[in-house]
User: Fold these one by one.
Assistant:
Number 1:
Amino acid sequence: MATEIKTKSLEQVEHKGSKSKGVNTLLWVLAIALLVVAAVGNTYFASHFSLIVRVLLLVVLLIGAVAFAAITNQGQKAIHFIKDSRTELRKIIWPTRPEATQTTLIVLAMCVIVALVLWGIDSIIVALITFLTNLRF
């Protein structure tokens, strides 16, 4: 009983700020329409307006499309995910400069060692194949 109440309350919290399917669809249609207008308008008005005017209008239309997409249900989830990701990034203990340099040098040294070993094995195989193919029976 208690677990059912907890799961219901969690579902209510998740659906608290969500929009209906119709509103969500309308917002997506508006966002896509702004993107289409930006792309087609930029091409169509290339000879009528200067580049700076077209770029400014393109930026305004793209910001509008992103704003409409951001207030959809999926956009809200994406924003929430980005905020959570930033929070997790702050928790990471990043290596210091000497640690990063030392690790990089170790990786480079191992790459050189593996390259030399593979070159040696390849040379041995080539020499063996050359020896076997030059034999006259």
Number 2:
Amino acid sequence: MTSSPELAIRLRRADFNRALAEADLNAIGPLLAPQTMLVTGSDSAVISGRKAQLQAWKREFAAAKRAVYTRTPENIIVSPVEPIAMEHGRWQGVTAGSDHVLASGSYSAKWRQIGADWIIEAEIYVTLA
């Protein structure tokens, strides 16, 4: 049975995927903690902070051959003692408007509940293909 926090996180992940597909920066911002951290899949570059991540997505959305990334959660572990959770899953990047896979791999994301909302505090990606 899916718990309420797990369902909420899965819905937020779906919102994030939709925002990426639609190149909607305004929808991405509220999903990220102000001090969010992202470690990229291939070169382990660190993108630190919401503002830096939004700038990176803005550049990505403006690319001539834009990639669309999708994260697919495989499991979500909710802490019984803190308002945090860990998401593990698979990610894939395809050329926008096609099914041509550019890269794929595994990811983990740390979520924190602030009020009624779950936001991403950290993500790490590993490129496997």
Number 3:
Amino acid sequence: MAIDPQEAEINALLDLPEDQPIILMNLLRFNEGGEKTYEEYVRHCKVHGPRFGVEFVYLGKGGHVMVAEDGQSWDAVWIVRYPNSKQFFALLHDADFKSGFHLRGDSLQEAVLQVTTPWDI
């Protein structure tokens, strides 16, 4: 099951306009006992993310599924806003942030990370 993005997916963000925010939707399925480890990761992100203008928009536990196929329910969702691709890459390459990134992988069984951009209608 997928957990971490591959380098090609990360580098594709270089094609986004540098002045456009990136809103990253995280759909998360935890390993047994992984929720506590992910909580450590969230605390780690809240220490380091703000240095790069990161906003933590929403973190919620999965609840009642109204419409989904089997296997499409998630344990949690986390929506994170990065001011732009430059700041996203700066955070990913920050040594202090990277020191705790393993907590994410240690806690997850599966994840979907979907980059979204504002849809102005």
